[in-house]
Amino acid sequence: MNEFAERLRSDRREAGLTVREVAELSGISFSYITKIETGRSGSGVSPEIVTALAKALQRDELEYLYLSGVVPPPLNDLLADGESRSFVRALLASRLKSKGWERLRSALSGSSPTSSGSRTQRKPKSRRKAVA
């Protein structure tokens, strides 16, 4: 049995739910959940199935995606630790617009954010001579 299958079964039991109840909550068939829990789900599960199960059990969707292995390797490494998952969750929840992504990208790379590569410059203050 794989790590995701073990966690799914453990979380379901901890929640005091039967497979049928999880099936009803998630919209996934009883037989398919049984196959997942016993590690006989064939070629793996889809991200949609994993997410539906996490929601039904009120668990961390990103952790379930990581455990199930449905995430591409670079993201899988990112989701491996809880602190990184928290960052990704906050990032997804922020619903950044393009300027926000620019600022984040700049902050991560250590450069200053500019949209066209040039900064607006202040005009020097004019110096008037005092009239006596």
Automatic annotation (TrEMBL):
Chain intervals with Basic residues compositional bias: 120-132
Biased composition range(s): Low complexity: 106-119
Residues in HTH cro/C1-type domain copies: 8-65
Disordered as annotated region, ranges: 105-132
One Pfam family in the UniProt entry: HTH_31
Residue stretches in coiled coil: none
GO terms, molecular function: DNA binding
Protein name, per record: Anaerobic benzoate catabolism transcriptional regulator
Protein's organism: Thalassoglobus neptunius
Lineage: Bacteria, Pseudomonadati, Planctomycetota, Planctomycetia, Planctomycetales
